[in-house]
Amino acid sequence: MRRKISFLLVISLILSLYYFPVPAVAAHRNIRIFGSYTAVTNPELILRDNVVDRPVSYFIRFTTPHTLMGGRDTVTLKFPQGIDISSNITAGNVSCNSRDVAGLDLSNNILTLTVPSAVNILAGEEVEIGIAGSVIRNPREAGYYQIALYTSQDTKEVKTEPFYITDFEYSNGVSKPKVSISTGESGKAPVYRISFKTSPNGRLTGGVDKIFLTFPSGTGMPGWVDGRCITINGYTLAGQTLTIEGNKITLQLPAGLTIPANGAVELVISSEAQIKNPRASAYNTIRVATSAETREITSFPYKTEEGSSSAEESKAGLSVVVTPDGAGQQAAYTITIKPGLLYRFDSTITGLVLAFPSGTEIPSAVSKEHVKVNGRTAAGVLVNTKKGELIFTLDETLSSNEQIVISIDRAAGIKNPGPAQYKMDVGVLRSAGTILSDWYVIKTASSSVIPPGTTPVTVNKTVRLRVDSILAEVDNLVTVMDAAPAIVSNVTLVPLRFVADALGATTEYNSAGSYVTVKYGTKEMTLWVNSKLAKVNGAFVSLAAPASMINNRLMVPIRFVSENFGAQVAWDGTTRSITITQGNGSGSSNSTPVNQYPIGYKAYVKAEHSYVNVRSGPGTHYPLAGKVLKGEYMMITGTEGDWYKVKLTSGEAAWVASWVVDVRT
């Protein structure tokens, strides 16, 4: 009986605590012992300075649906990676409704704080969390960011509206420059890499405009610098003798290079320039100005990258291929993103954002049929013409650890900007930050399209295909096809439209007559579906197998390509791969050539580099195998992606990045 009475008393006590207010909060019935899966409302960030790397106070406001008890309830703020919160943060650095918090915990940029003991925040009231600028800094990377939050009473996570961090400190200056050096040792001449962006009013014209660099006090400056020691966006300053005034050097843009407004600039100064480090310091910076943006902007402090060579071995791993690549032309774009590159933003991807460089013309609407990701049509496409952005969602989630290939066909209506080197910004939908692509070039005249009715120009083209695979390589750049090559009755069939486009031909399909017309220079070819007959310039020819529709794409025998596109075709039975080579004297024979470009050619160190690194495998993550000096050459024996397998003069095998060498016979 006593046990039963005791049990009833315990139950009564718990119910009284839950349903009846304690004296200090007698009017507040919306208190919970356990949090509920509801969310706070009206989350807002107040940030009075949005420039990169600035120490600035953060204020986060929201409305709480349930009462927060002082000394007991907590607020959790999840800051994105990049926002720097000091590990020395204390309760005295953080306030809640103008009072120091009762306690806090910081782990992996997640800040959990306890409501001040003297404060009870009623349901429906506003909460304001303040963090002192002495313990928090803006990210170093420009982009959009969000802060997530929840409380111990309302445990469903919500986010603030995205807020933008800019890398432009002033309207009349470049973006905040980044500087990396190959060695930080005092008195040594390192390789300098300096990168920044021009402003919306900062267009730089080749042969006219200048870039000014002022090095820190104590830097060992030579009397002059040979222009061959410096490149701007890959263009050497050969022919220039650069004079030094104190610690300031003036660089004249080469005549062939124009950098657009909002354009990326990358300077590389080799160690041969003999600009020597000052005393090692965490505060060494370079000031940058241009003739279009005269205000000097101070860089981030030097970042030392030990062991880097005068050649830029590391690429972003995000390539952009434009076809055709002439200024003002309507073009197809293929963007290839290496596995893992987007993992910093999200492990899964449901949509992507492409920000095209200034000057690119994007129509106000783009059909989703013109955008494919890894061969699948986008679920939806939006265009932000003001920002030059193409935003699209996917009907199937992708892992950021897989290779992603985005194909935008020419019918989308995107037109190339003026002739120059460009980079594209790529981001993950609903995630902060973006990644810049590798450089791509828009030329005055296209190098890839042969106008119908003219004699084809011999252009070196290499197309690699593999049976039963939709991945293909065009001049070592990966792209995705709509249909994979196949073997039918011992005849290898390839997708006609893809191969024709890659080799500079045009195709037009007539669904009513079930035939396709191909124009290549002075040739006009007609092929009929399910027929072994084709017509070339009015004369009928016989195919080794009928042209067939596979996966809604017309497939033709590979021999037809070699005979009519002036190309050589090589078959590798081990890998079931096909290599189509156009140019370099290729003819109509379909015999397997001994060497496919660039195999058998020599790779020389580019003129702007004093040496290049060679590695034990095709990538910068492989160990160094040695160095090759300017003037020496390597024999190319194979390729993989952007890397050449080479034979050194010592007879040893190694790998070298294709972008640091010139290929010659």
UniProtKB/TrEMBL annotation:
SUPFAM superfamilies: Copper amine oxidase, domain N
Protein name: SH3 domain-containing protein
InterPro entries in alphabetical order: Cu_amine_oxidase-like_N, Mao_N_sf, SH3-like_bac-type
SH3b domain span: 600-664
Top-level taxonomic group: Bacteria
Source organism: Thermanaerosceptrum fracticalcis
Pfam family name, one: Cu_amine_oxidN1
